[in-house]
Amino acid sequence: MxxxxxxxAIAISTFLLSNVANxxxxxxxxxxxxxxxxxxxxxxxxxxxxxxxxNVGTIDSSTMNNLSTTSLISNTxxxxxxxxxxxxxxxxxxxxxxxxxxxGHFSDVKDSGGSTVATTKVSLSGLGxxxxxxxxxxxxxxxxxxxxxxxxxATVGSSGDGISSVDGELKNALTFMPAATTELSVGxxxxxxxxxxxxxxxxxxxxxxxxxxxxxxxxxxxxxxxI
Length: 227
Description:
The chain is mainly beta. The chain has a domain at 68-211 and 219-226. It contains one helix and eleven strands. The chain has one helix spanning 2-22; strands at 44-48, 70-87, 89-95, 98-99, 107-110, 116-131, 134-140, 155-156, 173-178, 187-200, 220-226. Strands 1, 2, 3, 4, 5, 6, 7, 8, 9, 10 and 11 form an eleven-stranded antiparallel sheet that branches. Strand 4 (98-99) and strand 5 form a beta hairpin.
């Protein structure tokens, strides 16, 4: 009986010693991972080819038509938009001069007496634009708030459509749509072309009201919005 008791005592002691030894032994690992994204605000930059300048130079008024309009100069400008991250954008045309009273024209260039010497015409060129180098349609949304655009209520533009300089009019702002679906295009690079033309009014309407020279200086701003 004593032998059995001794043996049992040794067995218990060994078990206890074994537990003490295992208390500081590595048996498994688990990984704590911290993830997240620190982002900077999205921003977009807008550019115009040819520095966005249409320079007619000096033109003799005698070369202009007395009874009808005369096209003085025209050019096609490519508008490009580059954004930090993929997004949908809108472009609004801001102008502080004389909005044109002639349908389809952008602005009226007036002399000091209020006579219209010339008009500018800004219109879409080509069949649409591009989003990330893929074809896209242009959609007019100038009659909507750019805070919440309903693309299903937009009007698809076509080549030759005149841009409006009047805030709140349909063709005063535009966005991009995929070629085959009715939704806002999302991307990081956008482009579209604009035809810009300066047209002299008949000289019979204004020639007698100006001095020897008349300086034309018209500026419009293209504002890009993330929508």
